[in-house]
Amino acid sequence: KKDTAKDMYDNILMFENLSRLSRKYKLLISFGSGAELDRRYDIKNYKEEFSEYRVPVDYYGLSKRIISQRIKAWPDPTKMVNLRIFNCFGPTEAPDRMIKASIKRSLAGKPIIVHQDKIMDFFYIGDLLKVIEMYIDNDDKNLPNDINMSYMDKISLIEIAEHINNLTNNQKPVIIDSTGKSRPYCGDGSVLHGLFSNELDGAKEGIKKTYEELKNGR
Fold first, then answer.
1. Is the whole-model pTM more than 0.85?
2. Is 199 helix (H, G, I), strand (E, B) or coil?
3. Which residues of 9-36 are buried (b: 16+ CB within 10 A; e: fewer)?
4. How far, in Å, CA of 157 to CA of 116, rounded?
5. Which residues pair with 113 in a beta bridge?
6. What percentage of the chain carries pLDDT values higher than 70?
7. CB neighbourhood size of 98 (10 A)
8. Angle at CA 166, nearest 5°, toward 122 and 90?
9. Residue 140's pLDDT is what?
10. What is the pLDDT of residues 27-51, one digit of tens each?
11. Cβ(205)–Cβ(124) below 8 Å
12. Contact 70/15 with Cβ under 8 angstroms?
């Protein structure tokens, strides 16, 4: 689906409507995107502050960058937070998303298809909920107001596919459409790791939990 100028307009208008009513709430949680780091280039282990040095040209990425910069510049740093998501997965995501679709194919004994390998941050929905709960429970604390939803360990799409096949005991080899690797799409996870240490499940455990739910018919 191609982004349009209306997507940018809607995103910015949504934020501006909420920001002007900031006196009415204690905390605004905004779901940002790795797209604000400009997907025309490699996005590899970039720290949060790197968003200030890239200006994406696509409508979606630009809108997310504008919103994240507004949040970082907000006078009260405890009022808003930008949780920058590169990719989020779980059992209830859309059926055509990579992890859910791959688990479904593997459970059916079909080969998993990877269009082109790349390093990419996949963040488990259960871990995202833990982050959200921490911010809600500590809305008066001076927590980071801009943070990557990224794990320290990085995995590739092929590694994800092989991990899923191991979980399902699927013997079909992974099919790779294109050789080589596409641009990496991942952030530095050290700020998040400093807040949670070993309390998060991580990508592979999250994939296992997603697989178990899908296997049981969710």
1. yes
2. coil
3. eebbeebeeebeeeeeeeebebebbbbb
4. 8
5. 175
6. 100
7. 20
8. 30
9. 79
10. 999 999 999 999 999 999 999 999 8
11. yes
12. yes
